[in-house]
């Protein structure tokens, strides 16, 4: 699990000089170590601590605060399904359940991470990913995908890239006119809505 | 290899004609913050320069730093990160404290329902860098740090690329634009999954390599001992800084004439939930919720009525669907009007709007919100650490159909023991807003749950 | 100075009562000054502010500026709010009470409420605050958090995670006070839990303090667990007897046994801390292994005797030696761990009864003069311990302060955190190096050269006087015989640039402080080092901010009481040497296990064997006691009334916690008084207070007390009140350094001292021929020759395999296996692997040690702790070889059993 020489060099020559205090290089160092090994072992904390003059406990405790630092190996593909309200309203529970089902993992396991036996997939719920317009949003190895509805799960698992939203404009700009045609401004809702708001109109 | 930006002295007048925004409704005015969204290559320096990029900086360095701060102050720009603090005041206060000073860009954007910063960063990273440079010039800052949430890898990559381009073009480093006084280095630090890092002092702890637990105040970030690495520090949201170049180019008067007079300017509203066209909309501050939902976001899915809205994402109180005429701006939503006791203002936050249609099970939504805060509490202070978890447990139990009538008064009292500025940072207050307001607005739904089964 | 001075006080109103407090006071402290106790959990005056528990919430109102409407008061945490003039603090406002009740409810929902089986019960802030401020009934019906119970954070501290309220006192302490962040909260929010990385045991020697700090019984003491309830305990104020800092402690006893040691607050000494040795090593007092009565040697060896027999036997034997050879044939060694009363009685006994000048508490001492700074009219230690807190720079020479004066190290750390620049000189990296501003890694034994180098650097660029003019140091230039920085640097093996930088740091600092290790005060070149140190104080313009540490809990008291060589008397090292040579015929040893503490075990054994008479006072049947003719069973510090004097010269009272009534152990002063009577002389003491009275009257240092004993905080006294000799000028000592370092040729090599101060001729004669500091060339030469020879540096660790420690198995289990520390490069060259066994061969033999391979010792040097392993490292050393060369050879182990055997005997 040792850090590669290249990583050590980067930490010392690039990260440490970036900040006025050595310990500030910790977040980038942890990221780099995790990119190399996939997760963070105690020996890694020790090595990083030596480079940054920090006690190994100090390093490990910092890492443990952040849910994206893994203290155990994770699957090759880490699938994270947002479960916060916007995605919930769009059906993320069903998406999550379907992903688990397709991968043979028990659903409804609370907040932990579950992994397939072959080490290929890990799945866990996550908090809002700041892409709510593409709800339900699913992250695969830190890349955004959406909307991934329950019915899309098979296609999604086959080829996640098809659902990638990276570089796409906001959903409001890509949503086809059909969405509007069905329930849009012209569709008559406003009158209804206006009357809802009427009693409390604040001018 | 320095690629000097083309000299440009003429400032283009604001365009008159409304421009079409995607397939949506015509916007009543020209978007400035979103100008590059959906524009291929819009994130590259060449494109930015072709759009008049870095002219704001040129204008700024032609003025004294004090004048720059004055212009920003006169524009009445309020911070877009949530607290709505006047940016000019923050900059001026920091400048008055001894150097070295730092700038920290808060790109942590983790509030459920908020996603404007993500588009801004991905589409227009140079807009952010320019805003940062103007701030550094005005406040006298040598080192600036961007803290971006770990999940947003694509954003971090775009920023790194833009920073590289800017160094290549002499827009970062020493003697920027050939000036004697302006040397700025920018680096990007990635978070790793902690909502509380959006809170500015927790963010600084994290940036310094610590567990992201908020600091006590005073000393405040702008003061010695309170900021990053103990130095006076400006912490600004991405969107706040991205407004600045436009203010420099078009003037404070232009900015302060847009939208709500008390907190003017363009605003990136993000809207999600049961609307037809969820997305990010750049509109004048003070646009009404009604317009946002029906005029821009395409109305409600399946034509359902609006049951409730989280106007400032999960951290604020719920607004009933009957209150859609409210103006969406910091001044209106964070200052006293009629509908909010006992927890005071509804909250505007960063303008992330979640719309709940009438088919929404509010109890489930609130249980989820509560779980979110319980998991994201940093654990430093007691009411938030223990209280959010307790609320989460009770609400989870209720949502699973195991509620008891006495749970409701209990929940109300627990919200009172957490909320009301009893916690070290505002996360504690945030955590009770949805619960307390839902209990008030949708009491019968909770009662149905606790009196046996869901609804 | 112009401008109005800031107001000395501001007025605030606490619950309607006005108090004037200094500006910047925290509201919680202001309330305390007004007599109102605001409940707190996370707040602790010795730690940084956390604002975590929210228990201290009060309704606080700020005065509004004149002419503006009053601002409504709001809830604020009193522990983080600093007062301003006109502030109102309402500690019992309804909103505050409600908030507080909420906090208690929150804390208790996950607390197991297992108070009946909790050690903290009865002295638990959580319990007390719950009763005072908590809700009447619980409303929590969810599943309580389940977490680790009874988990060992180390062999000494136990964690009950379920009880933890996450106040961060323990983690703040570890991070801020000893600076060992080896305990931290992991995860976050509700899931936060206290851990160490990989659940490795905590190693800090200060970890016991977190037990005191914990407000809720989450952290308890392994040795005190389930032993007593607070109401069962009796208490005695005492002073820790394990090092010269003299930490104030409370001894809690039950059934006449010490069950627990707690620090007692004394801001001038230990603040509120003690080290783990002081806290945990108290079980010796009630050990069944103690000597239970006197022993007398008969034809068939030692056997128990009555006190009467023992006195008669000792008197007879001593009288015989005295009659045959005179009192000068008797050597008296020991006294550094006694009370002042014992020391005074011993000094009188030696002078009046034995009539010998050969008395010395300083085991291994090579020089007679006990105070190296006496030529300057200074005490050996001249500042208060708390001076370290406000120093601008601190120089450490020849001391590993963390292990030599542990709690003082905490104070030095505090000073460094407040801005002091630490200059650490030593042959190897110590804990202090972590905070060092300059590190001066000199060759073993070359401290004098280094000090002369610093003096030379000051001559080159003198400090500025108050008027900005460079101080005239021409006298100093003469005093060091014109030695230049470069010359001294070559000799010390330190780069001249670093010496100059360190000197500049010291010269530029306000109130610099110098601490010199106790060993340097007894070494052959102590006189010259004293000259250099005294001159350094004067050159810096702070003549009295130079300090020599001392060994033993009451070394300073022993020095002042007169347990030092009298006119013509021999220092302790020479007493042993002469006894081994047959010139000293009788040894009177008080509380010293010489076979383990004299730097040459073989010589000590020879001395004890050769002496016609050996009398020993002891607590335990040590190897030394077993070689005696008469052994008196003595009482220890926790069992005595009396006084001690700490390293800084603080006279402190101690009260017996354990009363020897019925037992057959007697305080040393009484043994001496009774033995004197048996010898027909009689000191005439029948109570400790009588000795105290004499002590205060007879010992000049205590004259200023006019016979009055100090109160609980003790009193700082100075033995020397005379103005500095030479009117503040520099004292000339020929610090001639050889122009080129001379190679020491290994074992037993001796040449003339490179820098000896001018001393009285008689004293110089008495000195053993000193060793020249060895050169790296010699070591490297030896290495190249394939011998694997390295210079050996040895000093004690804070907690070792001492008898007193061994009686506390939990503490003993934290002591590492005896080891030798080797540089990576040397280890590679010699085929030594980390953790492997190594044979260390020195001038007098060989021992086996576990190898630690790191960069803490420079190449060419190795380190072995003195108080670890059996036999101790002194088994391979010769007293006359101060910086010995040793050879290291990896031990080839055949079979696992050999490993066990080779490192066994960790006592
Ligand atoms: C729990 C919590 C989360 C926050 N999250 C964010 C965030 O994600 N982004 C942000 O810009 N500000 C966030 N803030 C507000 C910041 O603390 C701070 O006020 C803001 O970054 C200041 O920038 P501005 O003046 O430009 O708004 C958060 C505050 C709290 C209490
Ligand atoms: S309110 Fe919550 S997030 Fe904020 S400091 Fe307290 S525990 Fe941490
Ligand atoms: S004592 Fe004030 S917050 Fe803990």
**What is the total tally of β strands of chain B?**
9
What small molecules accompany the polymer chains?
A: flavin mononucleotide, iron/sulfur cluster, FE2/S2 (inorganic) cluster
Uncertain segments of chain C = 723-727, 738-774, 896-907
What CATH architecture of the largest domain in chain B do you see? 3-Layer(aba) Sandwich
Determine the CATH topology of the largest domain in chain B.
Answer: Rossmann fold
Beta-strand percent range of chain B:
5-15%
Question: What would you say about this model in short?
Answer:
The complex is a heterotrimer of chains A (203), B (455) and C (907). Chain B has 455 residues and is an alpha/beta fold.
Write the layout of secondary structure elements.
The complex is a heterotrimer of chains A (203), B (455) and C (907).
Chain A: H1 5-18, H2 26-37, H3 42-52, H4 56-65, E1 77-82, H5 85-89, H6 92-103, E2 114-115, E3 121-126, E4 138-140, E5 143-145, H7 153-158, H8 171-174, H9 177-183, H10 189-198
Parallel strand pairs in A: 1-3
Antiparallel strand pairs in A: 1-4, 2-3, 4-5
Helix pairs in contact in A: 2-3, 3-4
Chain B: H1 45-50, H2 55-61, H3 65-74, H4 87-96, E1 101-107, H5 116-123, H6 125-139, E2 141-148, H7 153-168, E3 185-190, H8 200-207, E4 233-237, H9 238-250, H10 252-256, E5 266-273, E6 279-284, H11 289-296, E7 306-314, E8 319-320, H12 330-334, E9 352-357, H13 362-376, H14 382-399, H15 407-418, H16 426-441, H17 443-450
Parallel strand pairs in B: 1-2, 1-4, 2-3, 5-9
Antiparallel strand pairs in B: 5-6, 7-8, 7-9
Helix pairs in contact in B: 2-6, 2-9, 3-4, 3-6, 5-6, 5-7, 6-9, 13-14, 13-16, 14-15, 14-16, 15-16
Chain C: E1 10-14, E2 17-21, H1 27-33, E3 57-61, E4 74-77, E5 88-90, H2 94-109, H3 125-133, E6 151-152, E7 157-159, H4 169-176, E8 184-186, E9 193-195, H5 209-213, E10 219-221, E11 234-239, E12 248-254, E13 257-263, H6 276-280, E14 295-298, E15 301-304, H7 307-325, E16 330-334, H8 340-354, E17 359-360, E18 393-397, H9 401-404, H10 406-417, E19 421-426, E20 436-441, H11 447-460, H12 474-479, H13 485-492, H14 496-508, E21 513-516, H15 526-540, E22 546-548, H16 555-561, H17 572-580, E23 586-590, H18 594-597, H19 601-610, E24 613-618, H20 623-626, E25 630-633, E26 642-645, E27 650-654, H21 668-678, H22 688-698, E28 715-716, H23 761-766, H24 776-784, E29 789-795, H25 803-806, H26 809-812, E30 819-823, H27 824-830, E31 837-842, E32 845-854, E33 861-865, E34 885-890, H28 896-903
Parallel strand pairs in C: 1-5, 16-17, 16-23, 18-19, 18-21, 19-20, 21-22, 23-24, 24-25, 29-33, 30-32
Antiparallel strand pairs in C: 1-2, 3-4, 3-5, 6-7, 7-10, 8-9, 11-12, 12-13, 14-15, 14-25, 26-27, 27-28, 29-34, 30-33, 31-32, 31-34
Helix pairs in contact in C: 2-3, 7-21, 8-21, 8-22, 11-13, 11-14, 11-15, 17-19
The complex binds flavin mononucleotide (FMN), iron/sulfur cluster (SF4) and FE2/S2 (inorganic) cluster.
């Amino acid at each position: 699990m040792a850090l590669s020489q290249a990583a050590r060099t980067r930490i010392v020559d690039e990260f440490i000089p970036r900040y006025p205090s050595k310990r500030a290089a910790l977040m980038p160092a942890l990221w780099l170590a995790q990119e190399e090994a996939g997760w963070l072992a105690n020996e890694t904390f020790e090595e990083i601590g030596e480079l940054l003059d920090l006690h190994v406990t100090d390093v490990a405790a910092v890492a443990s605060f952040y849910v994206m630092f893994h203290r155990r190996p994770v699957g090759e593909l880490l699938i994270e399904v947002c479960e916060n309200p916007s995605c919930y309203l769009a059906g993320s529970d069903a998406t999550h359940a379907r992903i688990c089902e397709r991968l043979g993992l028990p659903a409804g396991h609370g907040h932990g991470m579950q992994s397939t036996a072959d080490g290929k997939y890990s799945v866990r719920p996550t908090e809002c990913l700041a892409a709510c317009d593409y709800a339900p949003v699913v992250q695969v190895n830190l890349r955004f995908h959406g909307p991934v509805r329950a019915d899309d799960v098979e296609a999604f698992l086959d080829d996640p890239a098809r659902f990638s939203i990276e570089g796409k404009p906001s959903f409001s700009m890509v949503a086809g006119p059909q969405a509007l045609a069905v329930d849009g401004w012209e569709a008559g809702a406003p009158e209804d809505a206006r009357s809802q708001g009427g009693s409390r109109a604040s001018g | 290899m320095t690629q000097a930006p083309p000299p440009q002295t003429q400032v283009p007048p604001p365009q008159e004609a409304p421009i079409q925004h995607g397939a949506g409704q015509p916007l009543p005015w020209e978007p400035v913050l979103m100008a590059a969204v959906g524009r291929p290559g819009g994130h590259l320096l060449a494109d930015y320069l072709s759009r008049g990029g870095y002219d704001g900086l040129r204008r700024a360095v032609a003025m004294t730093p004090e004048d720059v701060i004055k212009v920003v102050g006169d524009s009445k720009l309020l911070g877009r990160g949530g607290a709505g603090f006047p940016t000019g005041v923050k900059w001026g206060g920091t400048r008055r404290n001894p150097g070295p000073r730092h700038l920290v860009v808060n790109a942590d954007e983790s509030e459920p329902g908020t996603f404007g910063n993500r588009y801004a960063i991905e589409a227009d990273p140079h807009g952010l860098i320019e805003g940062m440079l103007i701030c550094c010039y005005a406040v006298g800052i040598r080192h600036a740090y961007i803290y971006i949430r770990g999940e947003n890898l694509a954003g971090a990559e775009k920023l790194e690329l833009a920073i590289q381009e800017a160094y290549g073009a002499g827009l970062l480093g020493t003697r920027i634009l050939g000036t004697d006084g302006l040397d700025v280095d920018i680096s990007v630090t990635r978070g790793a999954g902690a909502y509380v890092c959006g809170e500015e002092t927790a963010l600084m702890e994290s940036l310094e390599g610590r567990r992201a637990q908020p600091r006590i105040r005073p000393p405040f970030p702008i003061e010695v001992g309170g900021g990053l690495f103990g130095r006076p520090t400006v912490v600004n949201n991405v969107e706040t800084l991205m407004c600045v170049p436009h203010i420099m180019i078009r003037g404070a008067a232009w900015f302060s004439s847009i939208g709500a007079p008390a907190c003017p300017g363009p605003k990136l509203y993000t809207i999600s939930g049961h609307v037809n066209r969820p997305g990010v909309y750049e509109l004048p501050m003070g646009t009404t919720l009604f317009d946002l939902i029906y005029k821009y976001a395409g109305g409600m899915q399946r034509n359902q009525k609006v049951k409730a809205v989280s106007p400032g994402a999960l951290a604020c109180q719920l607004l009933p669907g009957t209150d859609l005429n409210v103006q969406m701006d910091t001044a209106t939503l964070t200052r006293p009007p009629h509908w909010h006791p006992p927890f005071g203002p509804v909250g505007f936050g960063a303008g992330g709007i979640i719309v709940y249609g009438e088919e929404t099970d509010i109890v489930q939504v609130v249980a989820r919100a509560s779980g979110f805060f319980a998991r994201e509490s940093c654990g430093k202070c007691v009411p938030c650490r223990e209280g959010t978890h307790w609320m989460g447990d009770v609400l989870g139990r209720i949502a699973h159909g195991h509620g008891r009538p006495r749970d409701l008064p209990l929940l109300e009292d627990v919200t009172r023991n957490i909320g009301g500025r009893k916690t070290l940072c505002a996360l504690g207050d945030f955590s009770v807003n949805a619960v307390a307001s839902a209990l008030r607005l949708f009491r019968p739904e909770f009662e149905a749950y606790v009196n046996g089964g869901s609804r | 100075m112009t401008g109005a001075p800031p107001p000395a006080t501001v007025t605030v109103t606490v619950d309607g009562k006005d108090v004037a407090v200094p500006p910047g006071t925290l509201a919680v402290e202001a309330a305390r000054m007004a007599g109102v106790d605001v409940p707190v959990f996370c707040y602790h005056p010795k730690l940084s502010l956390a604002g975590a528990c929210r228990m201290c919430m009060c309704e606080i109102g700020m005065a509004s500026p004149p002419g503006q409407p009053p601002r409504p008061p709001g809830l604020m945490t009193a522990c983080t709010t600093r007062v301003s003039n006109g502030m109102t603090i309402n500690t019992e406002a309804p909103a505050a009470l409600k908030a507080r009740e909420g906090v208690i409810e929150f804390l208790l929902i996950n607390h197991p409420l297992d108070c009946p089986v909790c050690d903290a019960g009865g002295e638990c802030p959580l319990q007390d605050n719950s009763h005072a401020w908590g809700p009447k009934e619980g409303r929590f019906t969810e599943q309580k958090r389940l977490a680790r119970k009874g988990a060992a954070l180390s062999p000494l501290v136990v964690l009950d995670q379920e009880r933890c309220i996450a106040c961060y006192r323990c983690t703040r302490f570890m991070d801020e006070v000893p600076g060992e962040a080896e305990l931290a909260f992991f995860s976050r929010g509700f899931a936060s839990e206290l851990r160490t990385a990989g659940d490795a045991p905590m190693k800090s020697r200060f970890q016991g303090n977190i037990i005191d700090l914990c407000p809720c019984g989450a952290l308890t003491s392994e040795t005190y667990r389930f032993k007593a309830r607070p109401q069962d305990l009796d208490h005695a104020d005492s002073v820790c007897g394990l090092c010269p800092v003299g930490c104030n402690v409370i001894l809690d006893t039950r059934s006449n046994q010490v069950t627990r040691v707690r620090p007692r607050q004394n801001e001038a000494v230990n603040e509120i801390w003690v080290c783990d040795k002081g806290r945990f090593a108290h079980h010796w007092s009630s050990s069944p292994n103690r000597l239970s009565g006197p022993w007398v040697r008969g034809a068939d060896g030692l056997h128990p005797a009555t006190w009467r027999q023992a006195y008669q036997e000792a008197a007879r034997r001593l009288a015989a030696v005295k009659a045959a050879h005179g009192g000068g044939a008797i050597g008296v060694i020991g006294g550094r761990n006694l009370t002042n009363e014992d020391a005074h009685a011993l000094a009188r006994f030696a002078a009046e009864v034995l009539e010998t000048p050969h008395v010395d508490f300083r085991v291994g001492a090579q020089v007679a003069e006990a105070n190296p700074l006496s030529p300057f009219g200074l005490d050996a230690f001249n500042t208060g311990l708390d001076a370290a807190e406000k120093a601008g720079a601190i120089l450490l020479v020849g001391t590993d302060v963390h292990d030599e004066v542990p709690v003082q190290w905490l104070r030095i750390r505090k000073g460094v955190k407040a801005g002091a620049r630490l200059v650490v000189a030593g042959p190897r990296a110590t804990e202090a190096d972590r905070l060092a501003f300059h590190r001066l890694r000199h060759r073993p034994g070359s401290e004098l050269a280094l000090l002369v180098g610093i003096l030379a650097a000051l001559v080159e660029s003198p400090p500025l006087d108050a008027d900005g003019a460079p101080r005239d140091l021409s006298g100093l230039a003469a005093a060091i015989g014109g030695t230049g920085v470069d010359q001294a640097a070559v000799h010390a093996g330190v780069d001249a640039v670093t010496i100059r930088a360190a000197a500049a740091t010291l010269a530029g600092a306000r109130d610099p402080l110098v601490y010199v290790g106790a060993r340097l005060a007894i070494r052959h070149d102590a006189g010259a080092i004293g000259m250099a140190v005294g001159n350094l104080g004067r050159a810096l313009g702070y003549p009295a901010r130079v300090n020599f540490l001392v060994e033993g809990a009451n070394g300073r008291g022993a020095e002042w009481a007169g347990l030092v060589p009298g006119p013509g008397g021999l220092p302790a090292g020479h007493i042993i040497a002469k006894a081994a040579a047959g010139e000293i015929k009788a040894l009177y040893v008080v509380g010293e296990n010489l076979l383990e503490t004299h730097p040459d075990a073989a010589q000590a054994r020879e001395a004890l064997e050769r002496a016609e008479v050996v009398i020993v006072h002891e607590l335990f049947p040590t190897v030394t006691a077993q070689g005696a003719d008469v052994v008196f069973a003595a009482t220890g510090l926790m069992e005595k009334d009396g006084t001690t004097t700490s390293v800084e010269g603080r006279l402190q009272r101690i009260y017996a916690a354990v009363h020897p009534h019925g037992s057959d152990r007697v305080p040393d002063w009484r043994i001496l008084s009774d033995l004197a009577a048996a010898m027909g002389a009689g000191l005439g003491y029948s109570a400790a207070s009588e000795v105290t009275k004499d002590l205060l009257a007879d010992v000049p240092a205590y004259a200023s007390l006019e016979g009055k004993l100090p109160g609980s905080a003790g009193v700082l006294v100075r033995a020397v009140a005379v103005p500095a000799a030479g009117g503040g000028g520099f004292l000339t000592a020929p610090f001639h350094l050889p122009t080129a370092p001379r190679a020491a040729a290994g074992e037993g090599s001796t040449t003339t001292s490179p820098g000896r101060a001018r001393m009285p001729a008689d004293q110089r004669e008495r000195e053993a021929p000193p060793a020249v500091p060895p050169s790296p060339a010699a070591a490297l030469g030896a290495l190249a020759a394939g011998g694997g020879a390295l210079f050996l540096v040895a000093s004690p660790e804070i907690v070792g395999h001492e008898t007193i420690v061994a009686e506390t198995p939990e503490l003993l289990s934290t002591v590492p296996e005896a080891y030798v520390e080797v540089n990576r490069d040397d280890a590679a060259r010699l085929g030594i692997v980390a953790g492997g066994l190594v044979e260390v061969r020195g001038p007098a033999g060989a021992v086996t040690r576990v190898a630690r391979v790191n960069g803490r010792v420079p190449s060419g040097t190795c380190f072995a702790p003195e108080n670890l392993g059996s036999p101790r490292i002194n088994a391979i050393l010769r007293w006359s070889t101060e910086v010995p060369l040793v050879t290291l050879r990896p031990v080839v182990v055949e079979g696992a059993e050999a490993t066990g055997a080779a490192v066994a005997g960790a006592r």
